[in-house]
Amino acid sequence: MREHPQRTDLRAELDHTDVLWFPAGGGKTEAYLGLILTALFYDRLRGKHAGVTAWLRFPLRMLSVQQLDRTLRMLIAAEELRVERRIGSPHDDPFALGYLAGGTGSPNDLHWDGGWWRGWETEAAATRAGTFAEDHLRDRLVITCPYCERDSVRLRLDIDAVRLHHECAACQRILPLHVSDVEVYRTLPAIVISTVDKLTGHSWFPEFTAFQHGPKHRCAEHGYFSFPRFGVCSAGPDHCTAPKGGYPAARPIKDPVPALTVQDEMHLLKEELGAFNAHYEGMIAELQSGAGSGLPSKVLGASATIEQYQDQLRQLYGRRPRAFPAPGWTLGESFYTTTRPDFRRVHIGVLPHKRRKADVAAIVQGELLTEIARLQEEPKALRERLALHGLPDSDLPRLLFPYEVSLAYVNSKQHGTQLDEELGQLSDDLQHAGLDRVEHAVLTGEVPVPDLAAAIARVQREHLDTPRGERLRALVGTSVLSHGVDLERLNLLVLAGMPPTAADYIQVTARAGRTHAGLVVTVYDPVSRRERSMFSNFLSYHRLLDRMVTPVPVNKYAYFAARRTLPGIVLALLHDAARDPALKPPPEGADYSKDFKRWWSAQRPLLDPWLERRIPACYRERVEGVNGRGLENDLVARIMDTWRQEERPNLNKGAEEKRTAYLFLQQPLTSFRDIDKSTAFQSLTSSQDAFNALATNTADSKGGEDEPQP
Ligand SMILES: [Zn+2]
Ligand SMILES: [Zn+2]
Ligand SMILES: [Zn+2]
């Protein structure tokens, strides 16, 4: 459709947001990877020689780890095909994958230290000393080489090229993967994977403008850039010198806007996160419409749990909502999907009496582990139990292997610690009994992404020849593990209490039974009225589970949210303006306040009306009439008041701040969460004793509904 914008029927496709809905494990990822693959080749065939074709977004960073591996493998296969079949031109950029997660799982800029990256000087010294790869074994995002399948991928810093590579020590191939933000701008890879939070990068990193406009320049050594840093390319003055006569202009990229935006686990974009995301998505669509071909990305959502998704989609993307696959004439059947009679999961409900849910969950997980280990020791017992008379002995271990890994799902870190200790105890007990120790791992939101990836990779690659005592057999996890984790061998699941919502329950339980039939044991909380009632209605609850999913609440019209997104959106617009020669921008862009202030005072007559036109467009629906007109108008009116009365006057103040971002009254968002700092409650002296008693008491008797861990 992007090739024929004059065809109104095709153009109208962009006015819809489609959501791919498949039950968990039903092939949703495969469906959108297939679409991305098609778009990759189509873009090359129509002459887009470089730049981003698809941007895949996840609500949480943890979700993207396993998807990164799958996407990378698909991309590598596509690249081989591209070369072999000579698709596009031989001078096109090779397909590559950018993991845009700087600041959390990988470095923003190789010059700054942050997370595991110790800054340029230290890492360069480690490289020269030959210890770099060893130092960063835990920081690899990919361990198993997609080319040769050996676990030999290492990180390598190329000092001259200022590049951080994932490279295979066995087959010597460099993976087409860019994990620092700067390298993503410098290469503009065909697929970008990020969290939704990374949309805030449009305010903080002017090089993000290349995602809409393509790059201005190309440094022969360090790749694309648009705004020179200290007169050189974005590798920086220590690494690059400007060629005589300046850097050449980059070859213009045809239709630089990503053809596809895929939002996975869309149902998680709710409440505050959903509202912030809605405003930034509005901004992205506005930036895209003002660049290249003037066409925004096609937006696709994907989710395993959607209920009354229409309102959520209308608010998030301001376009017409549509679900795929559309239902057929018969329940459970459509042109694209079918329902099969075989079962995936066996559910067992347990309501403890006089014991806490975590204690009982630990017992259940322990029993499952012990029983599987015992059956592995005594194939005869297994044969009797399952009446497997015809099967040779050698086949029995293979039969048990997919049931070796168990996961205990907990709602709080505290219970995670408890189950971890219980597993340690169990491991000792089993060893005393002459059985192998139990390798286990606790995976919560605080576990760094590479550690999470390493645990997942272990379960994937360990096989029957790995000694049992060395195999990872037990996991304890919070909601971190409830999305996107797809492990064939994870089929025993124990829940210490119900997850907060029915949607969460569907997601968590879908971790088991992806290939083989799974067993789910839910230990209900006897203290919670809600959970006791779920136990009493166990059968009907499970039969009607899909209908228990509540609509996702998003309110993009919440003024507090719009107030918070305004500075970031204005700043992103200013970076965008700095790409428009008609607005006479400084070549360095608007990132530094000294450049910005000069531009702002000289070109106010141009910039003011430009912003007056574009800020409202960021907050307004893309397709008119999708949302209520009154709500849309009110939001725009209030936000423009805030701009004119509060934020704009602030930009005129003296430029003490180095970066333009800090000129705003409220700092532009750097993330969509942790916005509210928690407030400590305090008491007056007179009630101090009572308060203390109460505080101690609540801490002691903690039970019932726990706060879910992010
Ligand atoms: Zn290799
Ligand atoms: Zn350079
Ligand atoms: Zn440097």
Automatic annotation (TrEMBL):
Which part of the chain is the Helicase C-terminal domain? Answer: 395-560
Q: What SUPFAM superfamilies does the record tag this protein with?
A: P-loop containing nucleoside triphosphate hydrolases (SSF52540)
Q: Which InterPro entries does this chain map to?
A: Helicase_C-like, P-loop_NTPase
UniProt name for this protein: Helicase C-terminal domain-containing protein
